[in-house]
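hey so i finally got around to running the thing on that chain from the lab meeting. sorry it took forever, my laptop kept dying and i had to restart like 3 times. anyway pasting the input first so we r on the same page abt which one it is
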Amino acid sequence: MNSSRFRMIEIRHIAVFVALAEERHFGLAARRLGVSQPRVSVLLRRIEDLLGTQLVERRPEVRLTPDGEAILPYFQSALTRVDSGVRLIEDRSNGIDGALLLGFPTWILATDIPEQIVRFRERFANVRVDLFDIGSREQIDKVRSGELSLGFVRSKPIADKDVVLEVLYEEPWRLAVPRDHALAHCAELSLADLSMNKLVCFPEHLDPDLHRDIRTIAEAAGNRLNVVQEAREWLAIVGLVRAGAGSALVPASIERLCNTGLSYLTISDLALQSVVCLCASTNPDPVTRSFKRFLQEDRRCASRQGLAS
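ok and heres what got predicted. didnt touch it at all, straight out
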């Protein structure tokens, strides 16, 4: 067969032949395809001309010729593959197939976000979720460059032409102290109780926003920021507190990461909250949009359940 003629065979030609082969009736094939019966005849004749052979006997009844029987499974397979490809593209456009590249800083383990990711994976089984342990500043850069779909950061909300930081939730700050600390058995503290505390803190260059919040709290307590030691991870910070290096201002959820040998104290007159933001591109792909919607819906559902209980 001439290859140029072969390239002229179209999906509609194949679809007409397969429908007629499976229905064995021109009228039923036309109804199945949503075209007129004469159109079925025209398209069938076209594919037979292109192949240079008769595929269907018209009379006394519709039946396949030997060549028609031979080629039918190949054309059925071709239609199935085309249909699968179209469905794949539709699923990707609808955000239910593809890849999600998530920044996953260690402190996320102290929140309910890992459980939300598990539920997302269960609902969107065709989305591959890859997790990368990356700090807040680096996450923002990688979202901007397209290396990450989304990130979770403790930072103030921002929006520029490439990246937006949207508040996911807020939580109170706590003072983490060793169990043998003088304040450890206080039910509540006031800012004034913090004035003499030595703090373990993040390096300012790693997270300026976080450092600024802690400095704001320390100054509200009547002293300048009194950092005696710095650490790059929350686990390291609370580990140093447990070892007696000082106390630390931490988001409330950090207690879930480590509470052995530590007390986490509420500061009653502290209005400042620790903010968790979702970092995303200003032009997210469909899978990223699906994940963002899922997080919002999941949190609303959890909130309603909490109110109901």
